[in-house]
C-alpha cells in the first residue's frame, strides 16, 4: 500500500496563499487528487491530475488553485491563491494505483489516503 504524507497547511488571511504538498512512498502511483472536508460537510474533490499531468478542478477553486506533480519524486502539490474563508477544511491527498486518469469511484475507494492537513482561512 502506498503511503502518503501531506504537508503545508496552516492559518492564512483571506486573499493569501498556501502551498500543500503530498509525498508518496512504497509503491507505484497513477492518477492523484486533492480532496477537502470542512466540519459537518462531505469530503469534496478539489482537483485531480493524471499521470501525464492533465488536471481538473472543482468550479469553486478554478482560477485560484493549481495542481501539479513530479513523477520522479512521486510528489503532488496544490498551490492555493486568493484563499477564501470557505476554503477552510482538512485537505487530503489521494493516490490511485489502478488508473492513469482520475476516476473518482475507483480511485477514492481503492486508492491510498494521507492523514490530512488543516487549512484555515481567516476573514
Overall shape: globular
Rg (C-alpha, Å) = 13 Å
Measured as a percent range, the helix fraction is under 10%
Q: Assembly type of the shown chains?
A: single chain
How far apart are the first and last residues' alpha carbons, in Å?
39 Å
Note poorly predicted spans: none
Estimated share of beta-strand residues: over 45%
Q: What is the count of β-strands? A: 11
Largest sheet entry: 7 strands, mixed
Output mean pLDDT.
96
From the helix content, strand content and strand pairing, which structural class follows? mainly beta
The helix tally amounts to: 1
- Helix-strand pattern: EEEEEEEEEHEE
Task: Tell me what you see in this structure.
This protein is 6% helix and 48% strand. The protein contains one helix and eleven strands, in the order E-E-E-E-E-E-E-E-E-H-E-E. The chain has one helix at 104-110; strands spanning 3-7, 10-13, 18-25, 32-37, 44-49, 55-57, 65-70, 75-80, 89-95, 112-113, 117-122. The model has no long low-confidence stretch (mean pLDDT 96).
